[in-house]
Structures are given as C-alpha cells and as structure tokens.
Hints:
This protein is mainly α. The chain contains eight helices and no strands. The chain is 72% helix and 0% strand. It is globular. This is undecaprenyl-diphosphate phosphatase. It comes from Dokdonella fugitiva. The chain crosses the membrane at residues 23-44, 74-100, 107-129, 149-168, 175-195, 201-219.
Amino acid sequence: MTEAGDVVRADARFGVAFLRRHGLLLLLAFLGVLVPLAGFGVLAHELREGGGFFFDEPLLHAAHALEHAGLDRFFVAVAALGYQWGVVPFDVALVAVLGWRRRMREGLFAGVATIGSALLNLGAKPLFARDRPSLWQSIAPEGNYSFPSGHAMGSMTLACVLVLLCWWTRLRWPVLAAAIVFVIFVGASRIYLGVHYPSDILAGWAAAVAWCHAVYGIVFRGGMRPWGGDGRRGV
C-alpha cells in the first residue's frame, strides 16, 4: 500500500509540474483545435442530415435589404481582397519573405497552413456538394459548391497564421485586431453578395482555426515559439 501511495503521489507531482509548464499550451490546443473542430462537426452533421439552418435565409435577406450601389462596390472589392487579389498573393509573399529571411520553421508553418487549408477546402466542397444560395441574382456569382466558404477559410487561415506568428511579440494585439476586422468583413461580403449561406462562413472559420492550430502544434512542438533561437535552423 505504501509503494502504491508513493507511485500515486509521484504521478500527481509529475502531472502538476506538467500542467504548470504546458497548461497554457493545452488550453490553447483545446480552444484552438477541439472547439472549432466540434463546431465544424455540428455544422457538417446538420448539413448531411438535410435539415438546414434556421438562421441562414433570414440573415441573407437582412443583408440583401441593405443593398446599395456604394455597398455593392465596397463588398465586391472586399471579396476580391479576401481571396484572389489579397489573401492568395499575401500568402505567397509571406512564405517567400520568410524563406528569404531564413526563417525556415516560420515559413514551413505558413506554407503548410495556407496550402493545406486550400486543399482541405477544395476536398470538402464536393464532399458536401451544397448548392449556392439562389434567393436573388448575385452581382458577383460563383460557380462551384458552397460549403465551406473558401473566402472565409482562406482569410481566417491567413489571420490565424499572422496572429500565431506574432503572438509572442509586441505586435500581437494590433495584428489580432486587424485580423478580426478583416475576417469579419470578408465573411460579410460573401453573405451580402448572396453567394454563401452564413453557415458556410462559420464552417470555413471553424475549419481554418482548427487546421492552423494543429499545424502550429506540430511545427512548433515541444513548447517552441516563433522567432526563437532554433527558428533559423531547419526542422
């Protein structure tokens, strides 16, 4: 009994010490991977069951009620910046600059996160095969499937990459604030233009957050941080 008690106490001390050292990382993993992954799972399950989402059409109609020529131009521009004319070139430039600066681990994280996110989105769309909304004729129509939103997923992936890379620096709060504003406007543009259901946006955000945090945990394993001493060396 004494030996068993010693083992239990030793295990308890080890557990407490581990939580003191890595408790924050575990919390971030839970909030960054499991919670959004569970959210995506709920959305995907409901979609596969064919029940739809009660908030989708009301929010689309509310956005369409705001229709105005000025807003049309604004959200078309935001949508372009949210993918082909903004996010994609920025992703490429970010990876290239990090490689040029010999920040190999940071560049690996950015490259795997952004490329993997795009591939996941391309694979998920035909899997769920959800048709685009057809409540009105969009001024910027899209031809592929709707779920999850590629714009939402791509913009959130870039936002997560930048926030995670900057989290241990003085830039974290400005970058976080800018990322939140950008991601919200990109998502809103897809709803305003009538090319995505709000649930498509939520699914894209959830998938991107889970994916980025998973990649971050693998690339910066063992408690390493971006821009650390071994950031200049290979993996």
